[in-house]
Structures are given as structure tokens and as C-alpha cells.
Amino acid sequence: MSYVDLASRALGGAVVAANDESFCAADHLIDPRAPVFSPQTFDHNGQIYDGWETRRRREPGHDWAIVRLAAPGIVREMVVDTAFFKGNYPPQCSLSAARVQGYRSAAELSDVPWTPLVELAAVKGDTANTFAVNDDATYTHVRLAIHPDGGVARLRVHGEVVPDLELLSLVPSDLAALVNGGRAIGCSDAFFSSPNNMLMPGLARTTGEGWENRRRRDDGHDWALIQLAAPGRLLLAELDTTHFKFNAPGWAELVGHTADGQQATILPKTRLQPDTLHRFRLPSELPAVERVQLNIFPDGGIARLRLIGTPSPAVS
């Protein structure tokens, strides 16, 4: 199963509090880009790092940062990436989580109960330290603690979005969106980038923010299978090839899969244009589907895929 980085700023995560940001701001933790480093690059505080770095502690205690997840979800794995922190990384870390209703201030979060997800664990420098999480509860916030101090380049909180079906039922919504609980569960090829990129919020800024496969040298075609946030009736499909000027697919097709294993053509094989947002009104007689397969012919890149619909009454 492919998991989503629930903490990513690109999805909507945010660092809402940190007890110390003396050297580098905690906002770097959730930057979706890989960390970078330029040796011998200094400011008035010292060497510049692409991460969160606290001062050297001279008293007991530990440092911490709180992240509001982009959407409520189940945490399956945590990655504490200490890339480029070789002599100033924390020797240990821990992670806890909380489920909060509404929109709490940073001060109010100190009063909520926190559940340990990863107990005190050893951390290596300049390493993507990975920790499995065995907890099926839904959380809205996580708190990273580093013991006692130091630098962390990135925090990845891999897991599954738990859809708010009541909210999705109010108006037609994008049932494929990652932030709503949709996700890619398979594809023919992800050589250049993941099909989950198509399901991200907002507009793609480059081809690197979409799904792109390698050039095919056979008679086949590429595809991506999307698990919807909930089974539903689709009303509108958007296939966006923005920025894909010379590597857009020639044609695309959408095939729905119902809960009882039947298939339904949502969008027949249709010509696409490069660097274009395509919108297709879908037939009103379509059945409710729980998965949608995007077939592209023969290959190429898709910036965004939106599948607008409403959850079926049985699940709303």
C-alpha cells in the first residue's frame, strides 16, 4: 500500500509550535522537497542547514515541535531525516499524537492528551531514520521530541487519510484528492514521479509535480488505479496536462470499478491536448464506483486528476 505524507506542507500540514528555533526554523521539517546543503555557507548564527535546529542545551529537558496534519489520519510510519546533520543531530527522538476537535491555538494544544506512537528511540546522523507505528487510531496532530537537542532536516508522517464522509456529502467534492482520502493504489510505471502527485492540492508548478512515466517502446499503454475516498457517483472529471507540452498523453480513458466487481466506462478514449486543463461532464446514469483506472495512450504525463462527485448514500 502506498501511504501519504500527512505532515507535508504541500498537502496542507503546518508546524504550529516549537519550543526552540535558535538556528533553523521548524517549518523546514515539513518541506516536501529533499533537503539540500551548501558547505561553508554561514549566517550570523553559524552554518546554514536546511532543517530544524535548536541551540545546545545546558540544562535538563528536550526540544519539541508540533505539526498539524493536513487531514485527520492513521499514522503508519515516521521518518526522522537527519540529512547533513553529522555532528549536531539528536541522539534520540520520540513521537506522540493527539486528536483535536476544531481549531486549537498552540497554547491550547499543551492541554490535550498526547498518545505515544514511538517511544524513545536511537537516531543516527545524516540518515533517514524510519520508525514503524502500530496504532489504528485517527489523529490530527503529531509532536516530535528530540532528546536533548540538535538538528532534524525533515519529518515525514506516512499514513492514511480518514475521510470525513459527512463533510464530503454536503456538496460535490473531489473524491480522488489525497486530502479527502483518495490515493493511488497501483500504476504501470512511475519512473519519473508518483501517480499520487496527480491527486495533490492546487495547481502543478512544473512537470515534476505531476505523474510522469518513461517513454514506452511497445504497443501497450500506461495506467494508474485510484482508490476513491468513498464509493460515489461521479459528475465531472478534470484531466490537466499543464506544463506537459511535449510529453502529454495522446489520449485518455477513465474506467470505474464498482463494489461488486463490475466495470463501467466513465470517460471513453478521448483525445488530449498538451498543456491544457480538460473538463468532462460525465453521464448521469453512471453507477457508483469505488475505484477509477486512468488509462493513458500510449504514455506521458498528467499534472492533476480531479474526480468530482458525491459519496453514495449507503456510506455517507
UniProtKB/TrEMBL annotation:
Transmembrane segments: none annotated. The keyword Hydrolase applies. InterPro entries: Allantoicase, Allantoicase_dom, Galactose-bd-like_sf. Residues 12-161, 181-311 form the Allantoicase domain. Its EC number is 3.5.3.4. It is an enzyme of class 3 (hydrolase). One of its GO terms (biological process) is purine nucleobase metabolic process. One of its GO terms (molecular function) is allantoicase activity. It comes from the Bacteria. It holds the Pfam family Allantoicase. Pathway: Nitrogen metabolism; (S)-allantoin degradation; (S)-ureidoglycolate from allantoate (aminidohydrolase route): step 1/1. Keywords: Hydrolase, Purine metabolism. It catalyses: allantoate + H2O = (S)-ureidoglycolate + urea. Belongs to the allantoicase family. This is Probable allantoicase. It comes from Rhizocola hellebori. The gene is alc.
